[in-house]
Amino acid sequence: MQTDEIKQEITDLHKKIGQNVQLKRLEKGLSQLKLAEAIGHSSTTIISQAEIGSRKHFNIEQLYKISKILKCNIRDFFN
């Protein structure tokens, strides 16, 4: 596999994860600010940018915390 292809697949994966986090967050009726605060951030920047796949993405620790807050399985973000 070519390096450019791998980079694109990783970008696509980050976008998919962000979309799935947003979907679960909205299902639970939680705002971006409430979720950000719950994982230790004071602003919505990480949530909003990661949900749209813009420049930032969630790390594994953040995804674990988000899964606990949203009461879902971390694997749900990857489907």
Question: How would you describe this structure to a colleague?
Answer:
With 79 residues, the chain is an all-alpha fold. Helices cover 63% and strands 0% of the residues. The protein contains four helices and no strands. It has helices at residues 3-27, 32-38, 45-52, 60-69. Helix 2 (32-38) crosses helix 3. The chain is globular. The model has no long low-confidence stretch (mean pLDDT 95).
User: What is the makeup of the main sheet?
Assistant: none
What's the helix count?
4
- The amount of beta strand, in percent, is under 5%
Low-confidence stretches: none
Number of strands: 0
Query: Can you write the helix and strand succession as a string?
Result: HHHH
State the end-to-end distance. 22 Å
Derived from helix and strand composition plus strand pairing, the structural class reads mainly alpha
Q: Helix amount, in percent?
A: 55-70%
Round the Cα radius of gyration to an integer and report it. 13 Å
Instruction: State the shape.
Output: globular
What is the mean predicted local confidence, pLDDT? Answer: 95
Please name the defining characteristics of this protein.
single chain, 79 residues, mainly alpha, 4 helices
Describe, in short, the structure shown.
It is built from 4 helices and no strands. The chain is mainly α and 79 residues long.
